[in-house]
Amino acid sequence: MTRLRIGLLTASASRLGGGVFEAVVQQAQMIEAVGHTPVIIALGDKFSMADRPRFKGAEVVTCTVLGPASIGYAPQLVGHLHRLRLDVLHLHGIWMYPSRAGAVWARQSRRPYIISPHGMLAPWITARGRWKKALARTYYERSGWRQADLLHALTTAEAQDIMRECGRTDTAVIPNAGPPPGAPRDTLPAPIISFVGRIHPKKNLNSLIRAWAMLQAADALPPAAQLVIAGWGNQAQVAALQQRIGDVANVRFIGPVTGAAKQSLMERSRFAILPSLSEGLPMAVLEAWAAPVPVLMSKHCQLPEGFNQGGAIDCGTTANDIAAALRTAFAMDDRKWHAMAQAAQRLASTRFDRSRIAQLWNHTYEGLVSPKGRADAGKEIAGSSIADRRSS
């Protein structure tokens, strides 16, 4: 097939986009690996230029935002989408102006359009900011969901969220791809627990810090134990986190980490932790497993295979449950820890292997560009039955 120009449209092409940004970076690399051309289109922000090298020379277009950043209105965006002569447009994330721009482009260009909500239709998310989401649904989201040739879910649970919100049963389920797995670990790392991600209420960091303080007060932590929190967020949420940490011993907030600094933190950690209240499919867990580092995570991370195959421990979401999981983790001997690390590495090299997932996406993109692929309601794309395809 002719080399396709595949647009990846997202609210932020920088670290401010959190896990969605990391997923878009991975998507761009997979598109390039299968012989097509990724084109990244995003709203501009203060880190857009600094983080552009993450896309390794791919074409990146950012648009100036007018008005509130939470809406992301960029009047030049639709024009840029047309100018870029895209064969396919793939929207990552919803609830902001790029959703409207993507739907307009799809209607006007009559070219394939894919939407990946990235967990943003989960009940915990839709229950927050109800008035804003009600307006978004009315003015552009519902029309965009109808306009899309394909809705993409990261997990079967997210496919159910999409069906509930959008009424569509033709969702393709393809997980995020993790980074290439690293070498096996030779020694048991120091008792460091690391969190890497956006500083946001859904990450449930208050409960994590409370759990750590409980263990500290009970003298139930190893002498060298540390909780390292690395991340970014809006100023108010970061300030609240720092205040919450206060004088809790051996808890450090180190701000955002990327590249080699993130890799170094993972390699020094005995466990990564993510006690989230809601997730799509967190890149932080896939990055940890690739390190390979076992993970303490809640069931809301939507990665049951981590529990089933031994690469993760369910830490729950309450302070008591998180404290119990930390006790279990620190009591683990060298043999048991290495067994978990090996399980994490197997997950990274099989279920979430980048080359495997790249081929699923290649099949999906090329299938949609094919006239027959768009027309056949019963065609299977990436292993998911595509039925009830909606037209605008």
TrEMBL record:
Enzyme Commission (EC) number: 2.4.-.-
InterPro entries listed in its UniProt record: Glyco_trans_1, Glyco_trans_4-like_N, Glycosyltransferase_grp1
GO molecular function: glycosyltransferase activity
Alphabetical list of Gene3D superfamilies matching this protein: Glycogen Phosphorylase B
All copies of domain Glycosyltransferase subfamily 4-like N-terminal, residue ranges: 18-176
PANTHER family from the UniProt entry: SULFOQUINOVOSYL TRANSFERASE SQD2
Name of the featured protein: Glycosyltransferase
Pfam families per record: Glyco_trans_4_4, Glycos_transf_1
